[in-house]
Automatic annotation (TrEMBL):
Enzyme Commission (EC) number: 4.2.1.79
Domain spans labelled MmgE/PrpD C-terminal: 289-476
Highest rank taxon of the organism: Bacteria
Source organism of this protein record: Microbacterium mitrae
GO molecular function: 2-methylcitrate dehydratase activity
Protein name as annotated: 2-methylcitrate dehydratase
Domain MmgE/PrpD N-terminal: 20-266
Similarity comment: Belongs to the PrpD family.
Pfam annotation, one family: MmgE_PrpD_N
Keywords (A to Z) from UniProt: Lyase
C-alpha cells in the first residue's frame, strides 16, 4: 500500500533522523528488491521504443549534433566498457556523456511521454542515464527494467506531491533524484549510497523556468539531459564515499525553504510501501503529436473541427476563437503567459510548440499535425495562418483547472472547451477532455501504435533491417543479456551523419 510521507522544513536545531528524510525514503524505495509486474514491463518496453522514435527523428537536428559532438570528444572512462550514442555504431563514450547526448535527442522534439500532477514531467527522461550506466558497467535487461521502473516511480511520486513551477523552478529538478534512484536500483546499491546520490542529484539540478519562458532556446532540450548527466555523476561520487548536502529537502537552508514553499511548507509525497511493486509508469501517457502535452487534446479537437467544417479554416469567416481551459494551459502555453513571442511567426520552434494559439490554428487549417512541417518557417509565416492565429486567445476556466488537478483518473483532463464566433454572429462550441491517444481517449496508444510511431519517425534515418533489429531487442527487454543491452541503440543509415559538420567547442 502506498505511504504518504509528510515533508516539511526543519530548523537545524531540530532533530530530523536520516531515516525520516525524504531523500532517504526515496533511497529505501530504490533499494527495495521487488520484482517488476508484467504490465509494467510491457509499458517500459513501449517507452523504450517511444524514446527511440523521437531520438531517431532528431538525429540531424542542431542541438543533437552539438550534444553528440561533445560526447564524442570524451573517451570511455576507465570503469567500464562505455555507453552507446544514438545514431552511431561502434563509437562509445563515458556514461554521463552518453546520458547527455541521448537525453538531448529524446527531448528535442518534445514528443515523448508525460505525467502532469502538482508538477509537470517527462518521465521518459530517466531512461537515457539509466541505460547508459547499464551499458557501461554491464547489466542485463532484467536489471535495466528494474532501474527504469524506479526512475519512473520516484519522478512521478515527486511530481504528485511537490510543485516546482509555482516557484518558477524548472521541472528537471525532479529528474536528478529520480534518475539517481533508478541508477541505484540498476546497480543494486545500498540505501545509504543511494541517499547520498539522490541528495546530490537534487542539489545540482535546481534552476529557474526561464528556459521555458519568452523566447525559448535550445536549452529546453538540454535541461533534462543535464539532470540525467548530473545523476550519473552523483552516483559516481556517492559510490566513492562522498557525502551530499543534508537534509536537502527539509533543511532550513534547503531546497524547500528557499526555492519552494518556504519555512512553513507542508507536502505529502506518496511512495510505495516496503515490498510494494513500482507501478507509477502506468499512470503516465505518451504523445501522438510533437508538441507540449497540454496541446495534444487541442490538436485532436482542432483537426476534427477543421475536417468537419472546412469553412472554419478561413480567417475571413472567424471573428474570434477562445479556448476555455486550465490554469496551466492558459498561463504557460496560452495567451495568459503574456509572451508576445507566442504570436510571432518568426519565433523559434521551441517557442511555437509552447504556443497553443499557433498550434490550434495550424491543426484547424491542416486537419493534421506533423513534427517537422507544422513548425516550418514557411508554415508559421503563411498570411492566412497568421491572421487566424491572432484571433485565438485562451481563458482560464475553474472547472477545467479543477479537472486538471483531479486525482481521479476518470475525470482528470487536459483539454477544454472551444468557442468559435463566426463573422455572421453564429458560434461553434465543442470540447475535449483528453487526447485521442490518452488511455481514456478515443484511440488509446497500445504496442502497435508505439511501433507505428517508431517506424514513421525512423524510416527516413534508419535502414529497415536496423528498425527490425532494434524492435526485436526492445520487445525482449527483460530477457536481454549484457551484450544485448549494449546493442540497445539505433544506428543511422550509412553516410547520414557523415556530411554534418560538428560544431567545435572547448573539448
Amino acid at each position: 500500500m502506498t505511504v504518504q510521507h509528510h515533508v516539511r522544513v526543519y530548523k537545524s536545531a531540530e532533530d530530523l533522523p536520516r531515516e525520516e528524510q525524504l531523500a532517504f525514503k526515496i533511497a529505501q524505495v530504490a533499494a527495495d528488491p521487488v520484482e517488476v509486474d508484467a504490465d509494467v514491463i510491457d509499458m517500459i518496453i513501449n517507452r523504450v521504443i517511444d524514446n527511440a522514435s523521437v531520438a531517431a527523428a532528431s538525429l540531424t537536428r542542431a542541438p543533437i549534433v552539438s550534444a553528440r559532438a561533445q560526447a564524442l570528444d570524451h573517451p570511455v572512462s576507465r570503469g567500464g566498457a562505455g555507453a552507446s550514442i544514438f545514431g552511431l555504431d561502434e563509437e562509445r563514450t563515458s556514461p554521463e556523456w552518453a546520458a547527455w547526448a541521448n537525453g538531448v535527442a529524446v527531448r528535442e522534439l518534445d514528443y515523448h511521454d508525460t505525467f502532469l500532477a502538482a508538477e509537470y514531467s517527462h518521465p521518459g527522461d530517466n531512461i537515457p542515464p539509466i541505460l547508459a550506466v547499464a551499458q557501461h558497467v554491464g547489466k542485463d535487461g532484467n536489471a535495466l527494467v528494474r532501474g527504469i521502473a524506479t526512475g519512473y516511480e520516484i519522478q512521478m511520486d515527486l511530481v504528485r506531491g511537490i510543485s516546482l513551477h509555482k516557484h518558477k523552478i524548472d521541472h528537471v529538478a525532479h529528474i536528478g533524484p529520480s534518475a539517481a534512484a533508478g541508477i541505484g536500483t540498476l546497480l543494486g546499491l545500498d540505501a545509504e549510497t543511494i541517499y547520498q546520490a539522490v541528495s546530490q542529484g537534487l542539489h545540482t539540478t535546481t534552476a529557474t523556468r526561464q528556459s521555458r519562458k519568452g523566447e525559448i532556446s535550445t536549452w529546453k532540450a538540454h535541461a533534462p539531459a543535464f539532470a540525467g548527466k548530473m545523476a550519473v555523476e552523483a552516483v559516481d561520487r556517492a559510490m566513492r564515499g562522498q557525502t551530499s548536502p543534508s537534509p536537502i529537502y527539509e533543511g532550513e537552508d534547503g531546497v524547500i525553504a528557499w526555492m519552494l514553499d518556504g519555512p512553513d511548507a507542508s507536502y505529502l509525497v506518496p511512495l510505495p510501501a516496503p515490498g510494494e511493486t513500482k507501478r507509477a509508469i502506468l499512470d503516465s501517457y505518451t504523445k501522438e503529436h510533437s508538441a507540449e502535452y497540454q496541446a495534444q487534446a487541442w490538436i485532436d479537437l482542432a483537426r476534427k473541427l477543421g475536417n468537419e467544417n472546412p469553412a472554419l479554416r478561413d480567417p475571413a469567416n472567424i471573428a474570434s476563437i477562445v479556448l476555455h481551459t486550465s490554469h496551466h494551459t492558459h498561463y504557460v502555453i496560452g495567451s495568459g503567459a503574456n509572451d508576445p513571442q507566442k504570436y510571432d511567426p518568426n519565433a523559434s520552434r521551441e517557442t511555437l510548440d509552447h504556443s497553443i494559439p499557433y498550434i490550434f490554428a495550424v491543426a484547424l487549417q491542416d486537419g493534421a499535425w506533423h513534427h517537422v512541417d507544422s513548425y516550418a518557417p514557411e508554415r508559421a509565416g503563411r498570411a492566412d495562418t497568421v491572421e487566424l492565429w491572432n484571433k485565438i486567445t485562451t481563458a482560464e476556466d475553474a472547472e477545467w483547472t479543477r479537472r486538471y488537478h483531479s486525482e481521479d483518473p476518470d475525470e482528470k483532463a487536459f483539454g477544454g472547451r472551444v468557442e468559435i464566433t463566426l463573422t455572421d454572429g453564429s458560434t461553434v462550441v465543442d470540447e475535449i477532455a483528453v487526447a485521442d491517444a490518452h488511455p481514456l481517449g478515443a484511440r488509446p496508444f497500445a504496442r502497435a501504435d508505439y511501433i507505428r510511431k517508431f517506424r514513421t519517425l525512423a524510416e527516413p534515418v534508419l535502414e529497415e533491417a536496423e528498425i527490425e533489429r532494434f524492435l526485436d531487442l526492445a520487445q525482449r527487454l527483460p530477457e536481454l543479456s549484457v551484450d544485448e543491452v549494449r546493442e540497445l541503440n539505433i544506428i543511422a543509415k550509412p553516410g547520414l551523419l557523415d556530411g554534418i559538420e560538428s560544431p567545435r567547442g572547448l573539448f
